[in-house]
Amino acid sequence: MPSPQTPAASEPRRPHRLSRRAALAGLAATVVTATAAPAALANAPAPATARRPAHRPTGTPITQADPVLGPHVTVFDPSMPIGDIQATLDAAFRQQETAQFGTGRFAFLFRPGHYQDLDVNIGYYTHVAGLGRSPDDVDITGWVRVEADWFDGNATHNFWRTAENLSVTPWDGYNRFAVSQAAPVRRLHIRGEMPLWNGYDGWASGGFMADSKVDRVVSGSQQQWLTRNSELGEWAGSVWNMVFVGVDGAPPHHFPNPSHTVVDRAPLVKEKPYLYLDDAGEYAVLVPEIRRDARGTSWSGGPTPGTSLPLSAFHVAQEGDTAADLNAALAAGKHLLLTPGVYRVTETLQITHPGTVVLGIGLATLVPEGGINAVKIADVDGVQLAGVLIDAGPGGSETLLEIGDAGTTTRHRDDPIHLHDVFARIGGAGPGSAERSVVVHSHDTLIDHVWLWRGDHGEGVGWDVNPATNGLVVNGDDVTGYGLFVEHYQGHQVIWRGDRGRTYFYQCELPYDPPDQAAWMNGDELGWTAYVVAEDVTEHTAYGLGVYTLMLEDETITTERAIAAPDGAGIDFTSMVIVSLGQLGIINHVINDLGGPAGPGLNDGIFYLPSN
After folding, report:
1. Is 236 strand, coil or helix?
2. Which residue is catalytic, options 164, 319, 509, 555?
3. What tens digit of pLDDT does each residue of 211-236 get?
4. Fewer CB in a 10 Å sphere around the end CB: N or C, the chain?
5. What count of other Cβ atoms lies within 10 Å of the Cβ of residue 355?
6. 509 flagged as catalytic
7. What residue ranges define each of the domains in the chain, with the CATH number in brackets?
8. Collapsing DSSP states into helix, strand and coil, what is residue 182?
């Protein structure tokens, strides 16, 4: 494979994600040889091996709106002609395959039963889910897949889509899911192999799987991945940062070659709420029970234990509902189901009642206007916010999502506030800015997969165009994070001030666009640290942290350290890696003054540190 290439000063630079792809291609020889398990790469199938039925039925797309869930939700039944279902899915995929910053939002829901010979190809802002109580209630023979054909095999742009709560028996034994950030896999049962890359030429850059059962996973060129509370027949491959928490069948702990970080059990976890059909055939939302010291799926011994909330307890929001409509429902004690759409809100959504569930489907998107904050969760027990994308508006929000109140002393040990699949975006879809994306004041909060992203491509991006300082600020004690993806902010990406915090998997890219070193300075220190634990913290635990630099304007721009934490017996970091992508940019140290450097001509641009 080609060696890394550094553009000449006079050479015009390509858009940064394409530059990133070139940089990663330059690293391929090093990564595949050193850490990616060549046998696993060899075993991953090329798309040409896929076998569909010789004669797929053709049909007419289903166009009627669901009478309960609205115009952007299609509910399938096994009695429907399979050709009509396929035509509906194909029409949506054609629209959404390349619509990276489009406004289309879709949810395709499958009633329990068997669906024979169906190809579910998932595009942008598309949510595919079964309506059974357990994943095996909906079985699809075919594929439920994500490819990267639209981008020449490069899956580093395959964001903002999801698949959950169904089972797949793939035609050819392979069900590909080549994704990067904000594309969660939840409650899937794959009766075959699941490649996490496209299998022939390209990269994938980060993913999340929870509460799932897969016969075999091949990670291939997938760079980093968190698997939580799942069951695996086999896992093959690694690149930089593969983390397993509470996984039956996880590979042995070994870091960095292969880069497998294994934690036996999840100390405290609650699976994401999901829409299903109850025993009466009516829509309801299942809120799973909290689990402690959890291993394996929530449904291995039978249906997931939990509380069923009837849909009558929800305000079913549809695109066009105003912030006043949503706040009125929340104030009246209603839960909130945000059906697919883009909701422009002119007042902060206030979630004040204990136990409130706000569940988005189809990547429901909130856009705060006029400089307001998007969502405020009160310091009360049991609130769950799930399946929501918050898109910063041009007015300059202070905080997109705030949880609790500064200085709170209220505890939530028995019924914590919980985030699941909450994504924030500043720039990319258009002009937007925010000082911080998420601030957590409430103690005991659980964070189950977030991608907080200052846009590095798309519309409304640039060093002075989409300003944003911090991705995540944690002030509360005993906060736990599973799957923190935080990227491109202009200050510290994560600041952790609360005591006894726990992080299981962290992925961060520093901003690509500082114009020079002077713009990337923290006072007298070179650059801003990606993950900072405050000096007065006495206990903090973190597993599997990857911090990457790609300085496109000047490859000599330097960051002094990726991670900063106080010394002490209660500070424990395990499995850390820093990478200079394409050897463009320098990180001097991994944590404090330990480890490193990574940069042009330094350790092949990669440095691993098993523990602090």
Report:
1. strand
2. 509
3. 999 999 999 999 999 999 999 999 99
4. N
5. 15
6. yes
7. 22-264 (no CATH), 334-611 (2.160.20.10)
8. coil
